[in-house]
């Protein structure tokens, strides 16, 4: 059997190998002194690193107390603001309606043209041969009728 | 989902230990951990979902430590290693630890973070989750890092005694 890799040794010392793998490694280590010493050295180095890093650690870490602010309902201010806007808009609208009421008189300042075809419209004839009627409405409201042939 | 108070009390010590191993100043460490938890609180309060709070906190602590180093480098032109009080160690055993710490400090920040997580006893699965590394490559990376530290140790011993 080939010697085991550094990665396998690492996983073996960290107990991250599966059952088959660990059996294979253990079998190999029982036969190969070189790999057994490698495992030992790597284990020692890992332990030393953990020990060296824990050198700076305090025995007791005090957890500072926290004051969590009360959860405010953020939806309520939004609704309140919406209500204020809606009421303001309603007040403004009612002000304009009351100040400038609709007089109801005809206040047209343009000529309107409405074209229409006669009742005896023949769909088989081309458009330029159809009889057409044009109603012209002037600003005074007078309707004039024109017949186009 | 767990409450903020529970997450805070469960993870504060672990975050403190990790930050302490990355940055040596206790006061700075306390500030870093506090900032991390405030950031976490704001994030959760704003409606964001944190699936793995512990992993998120580890990553945030690491990022805050990196930010601290960057700021420190900007204002102080001293090496991070100078903050290690190596002179204080008298016995051979302590000297060995100091040399080992010096070797670890010479690693890249993300490599050191991996070693710190490893020293915290995190499983490969947890390490992979925190560092966003492939689970299958954690063992390989760790073994390479250990070799790297070993090489640095050999070099430092050669420098000291030859």
From TrEMBL, chain B:
The keyword Transcription regulation applies. Keywords: Sigma factor, Transcription, Transcription regulation. SUPFAM superfamilies: Sigma2 domain of RNA polymerase sigma factors (SSF88946), Sigma3 and sigma4 domains of RNA polymerase sigma factors (SSF88659). It comes from the Bacteria. Residues 100-149 form the RNA polymerase sigma factor 70 region 4 type domain. The keyword Transcription regulation applies. GO terms for molecular function: DNA binding; sigma factor activity. GO terms for biological process: DNA-templated transcription initiation. InterPro entries: RNA_pol_sigma-70-like, RNA_pol_sigma-70_dom, RNA_pol_sigma70_r2, RNA_pol_sigma70_r4_t2, RNA_pol_sigma_r2, RNA_pol_sigma_r3/r4-like, WH-like_DNA-bd_sf. Pfam families: Sigma70_r2, Sigma70_r4_2. Residues 8-74 form the RNA polymerase sigma-70 region domain. Belongs to the sigma-70 factor family. ECF subfamily. This is Sigma-70 family RNA polymerase sigma factor. It comes from Ancylomarina salipaludis.
């Amino acid at each position: 059997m080939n010697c085991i890799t550094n990665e396998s040794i690492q996983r073996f010392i960290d107990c991250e190998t599966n059952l088959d793998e660990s059996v294979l490694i253990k079998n190999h280590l029982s036969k190969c002194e070189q790999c057994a010493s490698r495992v030992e050295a790597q284990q020692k180095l890992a332990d030393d690193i953990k020990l060296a890093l824990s050198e700076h650690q305090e025995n007791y870490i005090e957890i500072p107390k926290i004051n969590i602010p009360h959860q405010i309902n953020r939806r309520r201010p939004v609704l309140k603001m919406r209500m204020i806007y809606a009421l303001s808009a309603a007040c403004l609208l009612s002000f304009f309606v009351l100040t400038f009421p609709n007089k109801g008189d005809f206040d047209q300042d343009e000529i309107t043209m409405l074209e229409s075809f006669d009742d005896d419209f023949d769909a088989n004839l081309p458009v330029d041969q159809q009889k057409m009627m044009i109603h012209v409405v002037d600003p005074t409201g007078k309707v004039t009728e024109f017949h186009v042939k | 989902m767990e409450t903020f108070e529970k997450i805070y009390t469960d993870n504060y010590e672990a975050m403190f230990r990790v930050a302490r191993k990355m940055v040596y100043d206790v006061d700075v460490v306390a500030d870093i951990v506090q900032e991390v938890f405030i950031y976490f609180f704001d994030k959760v309060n704003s409606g964001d979902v944190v699936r793995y709070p512990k992993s998120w906190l580890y990553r945030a602590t690491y990022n805050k430590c990196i930010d601290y180093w960057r700021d420190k480098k900007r204002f102080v032109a001293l090496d991070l290693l100078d903050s290690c009080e190596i002179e204080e160690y008298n016995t051979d055993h302590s000297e060995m630890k100091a040399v080992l710490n010096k070797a670890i400090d010479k690693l890249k920040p993300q490599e050191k973070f991996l070693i710190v997580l490893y020293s915290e006893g995190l499983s490969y699965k947890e390490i992979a989750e925190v560092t966003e590394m492939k689970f299958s490559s954690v063992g390989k990376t760790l073994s390479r890092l250990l070799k790297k530290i070993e090489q640095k140790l050999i070099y430092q011993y050669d420098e000291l005694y030859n």
